[in-house]
């Protein structure tokens, strides 16, 4: 079975992992979160590139047999995807805002991008808008509070709806946009309460399903198909479950002994 490593600063990447598992249910999975620096949306490009380089070193040192890496973080992908690819022969799939499909699907020709400051303000995102949405009005909205709310919701199953509504209110989403691109993998985790807090005329869109298809395609091209029942070839990886790794303990006082603490500082 292929071994897929999914990486994010927190639990946002689980929204992508869910789509991948739906397509490749028998693969082995490792989920690595660099939550000591959560959220990446407040980190510099240099810092993120250094952390991704450290991830590759840790992977080579500790996990070894990984078939594909998914950088399930828009900020990390737009900041460090190309530089990280130069450090390993393992195929790497990044996650970028779904600007292109949103521009194609928009009827009003007015879309919004809801992302962290680092993603919405970087050059790569601006290039996506210029290349694929030059015939649309694209409004940019920034939030890290929604990352915090998504983390809270994932670990506790609860969300502070007053804070959510207040955050949406201060964003001042334009009435004319019909598609809101979720440019942070944390945001689909709270898609339901988020959709309830915005106008009914707005539809949320993210790139999770497209990323899953890309991962399956690359594995098939490499001849790595699922074969249930085969033993995992990766040291320390338990087949059939998601193997969790984190750089910090959880901030929500959740007892998750299966999460192994690691360091990306070496």
TrEMBL record:
| Pfam families, sorted | Asp_Glu_race
The answer, when asked if Cell wall biogenesis/degradation is one of the entry's keywords, is yes
Reading the lineage from the top rank, the first entry is Bacteria
Q: Which reaction does it catalyse?
A: L-glutamate = D-glutamate
Q: Which GO terms describe its molecular function?
A: glutamate racemase activity
The top EC class, named as a word, is: isomerase
Keywords, alphabetical:
Cell shape, Cell wall biogenesis/degradation, Isomerase, Peptidoglycan synthesis
Question: Which residues of this protein are catalytic?
Answer: 73, 184
Its annotated pathway reads:
Cell wall biogenesis; peptidoglycan biosynthesis
Give start-end of the signal peptide.
none
What family is this?
Belongs to the aspartate/glutamate racemases family.
Its function, per the record, reads: Provides the (R)-glutamate required for cell wall biosynthesis.
Q: Which HAMAP family match?
A: Glu_racemase (MF_00258)
This protein is called Glutamate racemase
The scientific name of the source species is Pseudoalteromonas rubra
Which taxonomic lineage does the organism of this UniProt entry have? Bacteria, Pseudomonadati, Pseudomonadota, Gammaproteobacteria, Alteromonadales
């Amino acid at each position: 079975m292929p071994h897929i490593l999914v990486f994010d600063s927190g639990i946002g990447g689980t929204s992508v992992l869910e789509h991948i598992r739906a397509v490749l249910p028998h693969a082995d999975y490792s989920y690595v979160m660099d939550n000591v620096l959560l959220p990446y949306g407040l980190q510099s490009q240099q810092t993120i590139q250094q952390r991704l380089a450290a991830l590759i070193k840790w992977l080579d040192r500790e996990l070894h047999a990984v078939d594909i890496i998914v950088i399930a973080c828009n900020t990390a992908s737009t900041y460090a995807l190309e530089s990280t690819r130069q450090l390993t022969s393992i195929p790497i799939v990044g996650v970028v805002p779904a600007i292109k499909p949103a521009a194609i699907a928009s009827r009003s020709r007015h879309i919004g991008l809801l992302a962290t400051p680092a993603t919405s303000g970087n050059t790569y995102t601006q290039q996506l808008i210029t290349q694929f949405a030059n015939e649309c009005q694209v409004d940019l909205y920034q939030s890290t509070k929604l990352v915090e709310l998504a983390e809270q919701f994932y670990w506790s199953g609860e969300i502070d709806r007053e804070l959510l509504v207040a955050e949406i209110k201060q964003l001042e989403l334009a009435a004319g946009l019909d598609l809101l691109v979720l440019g942070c993998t944390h945001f689909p985790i709270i898609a339901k309460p988020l959709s309830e807090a915005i106008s009914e005329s707005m539809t949320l869109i993210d790139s999770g399903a497209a990323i899953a298809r890309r991962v399956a395609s690359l594995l098939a091209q490499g001849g790595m198909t699922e074969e249930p029942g085969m033993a995992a070839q990766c040291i320390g990886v338990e087949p059939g479950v998601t193997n969790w790794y984190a750089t910090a303990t959880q901030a929500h006082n959740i007892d998750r002994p299966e999460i192994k603490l690691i360091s990306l500082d070496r």
